[in-house]
Write a structure and sequence with these properties.
By secondary structure, the chain is α/β, with parallel strands linked by helices. It folds into two domains: 276 residues, Alpha-Beta Complex (Spore Coat Polysaccharide Biosynthesis Protein SpsA, Chain A), CATH 3.90.550; 107 residues, Hexapeptide repeat proteins (UDP N-Acetylglucosamine Acyltransferase, domain 1, 3 Solenoid), CATH 2.160.10.10. Helices cover 22% and strands 28% of the residues. The longest helix is centred in the middle third of the chain and has 12 residues. Pfam families: Hexapep_GlmU, NTP_transferase. Belongs to the bacterial/plant glucose-1-phosphate adenylyltransferase family. This is Glucose-1-phosphate adenylyltransferase. Homotetramer.
Length: 420
């Protein structure tokens, strides 16, 4: 029986976040942590955006499927997302690949990561499933997507981005009719289909799916019995529905959450070092494209109990200062100057050092006279005194991981190899 609309649909939905991927294009940043656990924005992790969207949308049952190097992610979830209460019909389940279906089987694909936990999902008796990727940065009200799903009578509703047509070659692309019903789904096409009435744009999948729970469970069981399936939503589940049922596209612009300061619908895949650096540094703009200060749609995360940031020394060449920068709690800027930089918790920047275009992860110590430009510094790195990065591309490339756009990723292992 369909739910009465005087109650939000999100209250009868479960958000299921797929957070098992490594994100190998982030190079050494994901050597010790999964991509959803990578730090972002000064305080948060990437996964906090999908989880915050679910919570702010009114969803009170959430599951997170983990797999690759999950300890950092699980620890973050346990610390920051432990406030759900069963007596309020709330739940938060961390679901590592635990060989629940087979004694030899890890999660074999995105669909299998849901299938292996069918019994847990069915125990909650929710009407709708919202399947989410845990590795994108955006703000979205899933309630609006749920409403479209119910109103359209779709068997699956797929969140889609409108992107320039030839930029869609790296996505799964929806070929839709004038009612946004999906008539074909093409994975990474060389010639993406355009949108009716707007042929220069294409609809790219965001990896967000809404299903009626019972339909999805039946579909996953059928897929699990197919020996030729790769157990993947994009490769198997969605094409099957497009061919045999009703799939509808949901445009991100219809449910994107924007404050008064956000002009465009903001969505980022921060899956490369360049994209990760850029998205963090963009937050230092006077009016950034992503408003993380919007109290009406907060980004929930693990709130560490730390002292305030501190700036000391006021000599001409030894002044603790920050221009167009974000500085988190427990940072001490001791006679160091920051320009267009973002510092996570617990950073120590010592005298005469200068940071420009620096994304500095927690607990980094920057030695005196260090000059760092256009860098990403991994957690806990100790930068030696006098180190210069960002002036000699050839030297930087030999010492560190230097990207196509000249961003240097610095880890402690790289520092340890330096001959200083």
């Amino acid at each position: 029986m369909e739910q009465k609309r005087n109650q939000p649909l999100a209250r009868d939905a479960m958000a299921y976040v797929l957070a098992g991927g490594r994100g190998s294009r982030l190079k050494e940043l994901t050597d010790r942590r999964a991509k959803p656990a990578v730090y972002f924005g000064g305080k948060a992790r990437i996964i906090d955006f999908a989880l915050s969207n679910a919570l702010n949308s009114g969803i009170r049952r959430i599951g997170v499927a983990t797999q690759y190097k999950a300890h950092s992610l699980i620890r973050h979830l346990q610390r920051g997302w432990n406030f759900f209460r069963p007596e309020r019909n709330e739940s938060f389940d961390i679901l590592p690949a635990s060989q629940r279906v087979s004694e030899t089987q890890w999660y074999e694909g995105t669909a299998d990561a849901v299938y292996q936990n069918i019994d847990i999902i069915e125990d909650y008796g929710v009407e709708y499933m919202v399947i989410l990727a845990g590795d994108h940065v955006y703000k979205m009200d899933y309630e609006l997507m749920l409403q479209q799903h119910v109103d359209s009578g779709a068997q699956v509703t797929i969140g889609c981005l409108e992107v320039p047509r030839m930029e869609a070659v790296g996505f799964g692309v929806m070929h839709v009719n004038d009612k946004d019903e999906i008539i074909d789904f093409v994975e990474k096409p060389s010639d993406p289909p355009g949108i009716p009435g707007n042929p220069e744009m294409a609809l790219a999948s965001m990896g967000i799916y809404v299903f009626h729970t019972r339909f999805l469970m039946d579909l996953l069981r059928r897929d699990a019995d197919d020996p030729n399936s790769s157990r993947d939503f994009g490769k198997d589940i969605i094409p099957y529905i497009v061919e045999n049922g009703k799939a509808v596209a949901h445009r991100f612009t219809a449910s994107c959450v924007r404050s008064d300061f956000e002009r465009e619908a903001y969505w980022r895949d921060v899956g490369t070092v360049d994209a990760y650096w850029q998205a963090n540094i963009d937050l230092t703009d006077i009016t950034p494209e992503l408003d993380i200060y919007d109290s009406t749609w907060p980004i929930w995360t693990f709130a560490e109990i730390k002292p305030p940031a501190k700036f000391v020394h006021d000599d001409e060449d030894r002044r603790g200062s920050a221009i167009s920068s974000l500085v988190s709690g427990d940072c001490i800027i001791s006679g160091s100057s920051l320009h267009r930089s973002l510092l996570f918790t617990g950073v120590r920047a010592n005298s005469y050092s200068r940071l420009e275009g620096a994304v500095v992860l927690p607990d980094v110590k920057i030695g005196r006279h260090a000059q760092l430009r256009n860098v990403v510094i991994d957690r806990g790195v100790i930068i030696p005194e006098g180190l210069v990065v960002g002036e000699d591309p050839e030297l930087d490339g030999r010492r560190f991981r230097r990207s196509e756009n000249g961003i240097c990723l610095i880890t402690q292992a790289m520092i340890d190899k330096l001959d200083l």
